[in-house]
Amino acid sequence: MTFQTLDDLEDGQRVLVRLDLNSPVEDGEVQDNRRFDRHAETISELVDRDFEVAVLAHQGRPGRDDFVSLSQHADILESHVDSPVDFVADTFGEDALSAIGELDGGDVLVLENTRMCDEELPEEEPEVKAETEFVQTLKDEFDAYVNDAYSAAHRSHASLVGFPLVMDAYAGRVMETEYEANTAIAEKEFDGQVTMVVGGTKATDVIDVMTHLDEKVDDFLLGGIAGELFLRAAGYPVGYDIDDANLYDEQWEQNSEKIESMLEDHRDQITLAVDLAYEDDDGSRAEQSVDDIDEKTVSYLDVGSETVMEYSPTIRESEAVFVKGALGMFEDERFSVGTAGVLEAIAETDCFSVVGGGDTSRAIEMYGMEEDEFGHVSIAGGAYIRALTGAELVGVEVLQR
Ligand SMILES: Nc1ncnc2c1ncn2[C@@H]1O[C@H](COP(=O)(O)OP(=O)(O)OP(=O)(O)O)[C@@H](O)[C@H]1O
Ligand SMILES: O=C(O)[C@H](O)COP(=O)(O)O
């Protein structure tokens, strides 16, 4: 490991800690999830070691419904650590500096959503980010900077890459364990069959994975919105928007050529869903074979049971299984069959397994499985993909300088 960790940091100092608390938001309510639980370990250690702790984190993206204040995050974090967690609705202005000034040993203060500061986004070189007023103002308030946000380390944003250039910088416990696990996985060789279950909402993630791992992975089992786009490329009349949600068409426009050529070049490695599930007029789950679909008139929210039955033996025969992205909208139990089904198949076998994705990893506890039934459960989505494909993470690179 080439970065400094909390083991190298002297107790009782004033530290600025970057976490990734980016969470699903439903009707304005921030949903508790694995990220809080994991980061609570780092925060609890800092509290026990009498550090004065200020937390930086982001939530959502400007313009989206999930772009909200971090006040609820402070309450959720507090419920995971055994000490009070305060919040100030400011990131580096007067109110923030005054709240930081009042910190005592063992105190934790969450600062406002970093993405509410103009200088946090867009992605620019670390050297540019280091010169921002945001970084230059906060750097003088602390003895050290700790980055625990492995799952955001693929973003060249001020709070992630600016501070390590101008302050003593350390990796938090989540950064350390995720980095170790994901790097080891990228380098690992397997003798037997390697399978990757890919789904979720982001076609680019799926294409990235397939482009970089086509020699390492024998079978890609597809689902989710990404899987429906592949069905479209295979000639089925699905994978386009029928309402104004814009989940498919824009992604299709941007990626259709890549999806089509991926399907053509790797047809024997790619398994597509044979049936899909939707909500019928009574509000119940209904399923339809993809061969019976003449025109898309409903939203498909999961892969069907036949598909799970086809995917399960492949998983059972595998030496290693990786998962990125959910096969359906599993947050609604009616549409959890695909995601929970493949996760259960993985949990039941003794293959080496890794489940990645901030959202997808939630399904494990939602459907009664234990984290230790899997080799590694990563709270990272985009960063996990990049690590698996051997790409460098800028947020890790600056810690290693
Ligand atoms: N057919 C579908 N319709 C609607 N939503 C779907 C469908 N299939 C999957 N999803 C949604 O995909 C989400 C997970 O996708 P995403 O690509 O964000 O995965 P992730 O890798 O877990 O997360 P992240 O990359 O954000 O860390 C789930 O929340 C699930 O509800
Ligand atoms: O949830 C994530 O994957 C990270 O927090 C990064 O968020 P972003 O994709 O909005 O940059």
From TrEMBL:
Which InterPro entries does the UniProt record give? Phosphoglycerate_kinase, Phosphoglycerate_kinase_CS, Phosphoglycerate_kinase_N, Phosphoglycerate_kinase_sf
GO terms, biological process: gluconeogenesis; glycolytic process
The residues that the entry says bind (2R)-3-phosphoglycerate are: 35, 115, 155
A cellular-component GO term for this protein: cytosol
Lineage of the organism: Archaea, Methanobacteriati, Methanobacteriota, Stenosarchaea group, Halobacteria
Protein name, UniProt field: Phosphoglycerate kinase
One example of the protein's molecular function in GO is: ATP binding
The primary location reported for this protein is cytoplasm
Which family does this protein fall into?
Belongs to the phosphoglycerate kinase family.
> Carries keyword rRNA-binding?
no
Q: Where found, per UniProt?
A: Cytoplasm
Task: Describe the subunit structure.
Answer: Monomer.
Q: List positions binding substrate.
A: 20-22, 35, 58-61, 115, 155
Q: Which residues take part in binding ATP?
A: 331, 357-360
Write down the Pfam families for this protein, in alphabetical order.
Answer: PGK
Keyword Cytoplasm (UniProt): yes
Q: Which UniProt keywords apply?
A: ATP-binding, Cytoplasm, Glycolysis, Kinase, Nucleotide-binding, Transferase
Q: EC number(s) of the enzyme?
A: 2.7.2.3
